[in-house]
Amino acid sequence: MDRDILFERGRRNLSRIGRIITIAAGKGGVGKSVVAASLALTLGERGKNVGLLDLDVHGPSIPDILHARGEIVASKEGLKPLSVHGIKVMSTGMLIGDNPLPTKGEDKRNLISFLVGLTNWGNLDYLIIDLPPGTGDETIWVLRALRGLKNVGVLVVTTPSILAVSVVRRLLSMLEDEKIRVIGIVENMAYFNCEGKVYRPFGRFSEELVRRFKLRVIASLPIDPSLEQTIYDGGLPHRSSEELKSAFYRLCDVVESSWGE
Amino acid sequence: MHEWTLAEAIVESLNSFVEQNGRKKVLEVEILYGEMMELDTDILSYAIEELVKGTVLEGAKFSLKEEKALFKCNACGATWDFETAHKMLSHEFGILEEPSGARESPLHFIPDLAQALLKCPRCGSRDFEAISGKGIRVARMVLGR
Strand pairing partners for B61? Predict the structure, then answer.
């Protein structure tokens, strides 16, 4: 009998959650984890029960972004995610600190099955899943687990850079093949304001790609020079500037309405 | 105490399998679990016994078998067992168990974190394989009519 007990358990856990938003990016360094954390925090501030699952097992940055410190507690019901700033957070970073985790293939997928299968989220309106860049084991695990579930949408985060286009195209092709709903594109680091003038150093996200996959750019987030310092000082990313805060509120509006009534 | 969660995972999976295959009775189930999980088999057995009540699994004979852990280093070729690995486990990271308050290694809950929590005892590399003794699976099931 060949059944993956923990994978099945993980999938069942995910199917019981209100809505799942997977944050994916073809390329690394586009601000995906900051977007994931900010979206989770903003939804939390809007009164939703929100969980944030960091599946970037090799480079988990969610604990640092949220200043999430403390040990995970286990009970009869499973592993309790850490409660921080009104949301629930689970990350391998809270289990292994800064230790490297050189793992691959089936071992990595089993790791995720255990992590998701054992975590007890309780009642959630939203679970935000932060994926690592690319289409490797973590992405494969999530696609398999979410296949056929109706409560799922993907946000694709990218910069408008021409260098990101081919990578995002591959990601979108895969999501299309797997019939996973894409909520839209989040164009991060899209522009900055200088003395009242808007500059777009990376141009605009590929219109050809938007047309090809029948998608929308649902948010254009600014380059916020104070973001790094905000996180360094212990602040939260979505409150780094009024402009960013408003942008995340607008993004939440679009995301929430994407499910319809 | 995550034995309860594992028991739920086992029972849910088996019930779903039996249902999908249109069977009405299960006679025997053999569960194979890895040594790295350091399971309390008394708790696991009791949890399974409680959870199968009223399901097609009720009355089935469950047996739990431990698979010994073995590690092999890809850098120097050394092999070692779980006793050796356990001595090397850092106490830097832990998961607090409720209600006992005991602090267990994350390895106990997620064996595939091994490369983050252990190193080769001979050369110090993390490039090793946990060849056996980490997961949990149904090794055998005998269905009735």
Answer: B28
Nearest to B13 among A8, A78, A111 (CB): A8
**Sign of dihedral through CA atoms B45, B51, B54, B60?**
negative
Q: Is the dihedral of CA A221, A224, A228, A229 positive or negative?
A: negative
Q: pLDDT tens, A77-90?
A: 999 999 999 999 99
Distances (CA, A) of B121 to A23, A91, B86, B130: 39, 27, 11, 13
* A69: contact with B, CB 8 A cutoff: no
Q: From the CB of residue B33, how many other CB atoms can be counted at a distance below 10 Å? A: 24
CA A76 to chain centre: 28
Q: Tokens in use for A91? A: 């990350």
B10-23 per-position pLDDT tens digit: 999 999 999 888 88
pLDDT > 90? residue A137: yes
B73 Cβ contact list (under 8 Å, min separation 6) = B79, B120, B122, B123, B125, B127, B128
Task: Tell me which H or E stretch contains A228.
Answer: helix A227-232
Q: Which helix (H) or strand (E) segment is A78 a member of? A: strand A78-80
**From the CB of residue A229, how many other CB atoms can be counted at a distance below 10 Å?**
11
Chain A residue closest to B8 (CA)?
Answer: A9
Q: In what helix (H) or strand (E) does residue B72 lie, and over which residues does it extend?
A: strand B70-73
Domains annotated on chain B, with CATH: 2-67+134-144 (3.30.2320.50), 70-132 (no CATH)
Domains along the sequence of chain A with CATH: 3-257 (3.40.50.300)
Residue A20 phi, psi dihedral angles, 5° rounding = -115, 125
- Coil, strand or helix at A199: strand
DSSP B94: -
Residue B47, pLDDT > 80, answer: yes
Q: Which residue of B has its CA nearest to A111?
A: B112
Taking a contact as any Cβ pair under 8 Å apart, which residues of chain B between 87 and 126 contact chain A? 92-99, 103-104, 106, 109-113, 115-117, 126
ipTM: 0.94
